[in-house]
């Protein structure tokens, strides 16, 4: 017994309508926060420095040494300021499998304890970076005449933002009665 395929003739107009967009989606820039824009700006400075390094090294055969240092320091800024985006959106690596097997009150208590530990860690890291900036003073970068503490101020900004965002996340978790650890589907859209 064979299964015959049944094809229906469609017109050119029907084909053309399949390529039409239903409605132009609205652009919502309100979902982005301060750290998103700062990380994006630093990323583009880094990208331009890397492109300039590539161009001068492989096209002009005479590379600028400062572009590599700038790109490295920009990467540091992108990492630490970008990490605050992950704290705000609860996107850092976490193990939520354990919470599936714990009773709800125990999972809630453990989640609250993790929120408090995270707040304490980012607060302490902020203090350590501030002390480090005070120690290094106005040490200069290697290839350009800029103070190296500008880089460490970006790290400090990242830790301050992570601290503040972890406070916001903890308050949100306490108000809604669960965190991303307890109900990851509520955060990624898979829970309806």
From TrEMBL:
GO terms for cellular component: plasma membrane. The chain crosses the membrane at residues 37-58, 70-89, 110-130, 150-167. GO terms for biological process: C4-dicarboxylate transport. It is found in: Cell inner membrane. Keywords: Cell inner membrane, Cell membrane, Membrane, Transmembrane, Transmembrane helix, Transport. It is a multi-pass membrane protein. Residues 46-175 form the Tripartite ATP-independent periplasmic transporters DctQ component domain. This is TRAP transporter small permease protein.
């Amino acid at each position: 017994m064979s299964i015959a395929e049944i094809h229906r003739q469609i017109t050119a107009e029907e084909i053309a309508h399949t390529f039409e967009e239903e409605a132009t989606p609205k652009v919502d820039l309100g979902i982005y926060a301060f750290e998103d824009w700062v990380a994006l700006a630093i990323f583009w400075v880094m990208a331009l420095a890397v492109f300039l390094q590539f161009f001068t090294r492989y096209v002009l055969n005479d590379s600028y040494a400062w572009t590599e240092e700038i790109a490295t320091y920009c990467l540091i800024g992108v990492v630490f300021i970008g990490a605050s985006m992950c704290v705000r959106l609860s996107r850092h690596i976490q193990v939520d499998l354990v919470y599936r097997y714990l009773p709800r009150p125990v999972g809630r208590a453990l989640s609250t304890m993790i929120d408090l530990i995270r707040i304490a860690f980012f607060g302490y890291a902020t203090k350590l970076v501030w002390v480090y900036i005070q120690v290094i003073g106005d040490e200069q970068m290697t290839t350009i005449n800029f103070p190296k503490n500008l880089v460490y101020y970006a790290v400090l900004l990242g830790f301050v933002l992570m601290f503040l965002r972890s406070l916001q996340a903890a308050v949100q978790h306490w108000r809604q009665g669960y965190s991303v650890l307890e109900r990851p589907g509520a955060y990624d859209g898979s829970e309806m």
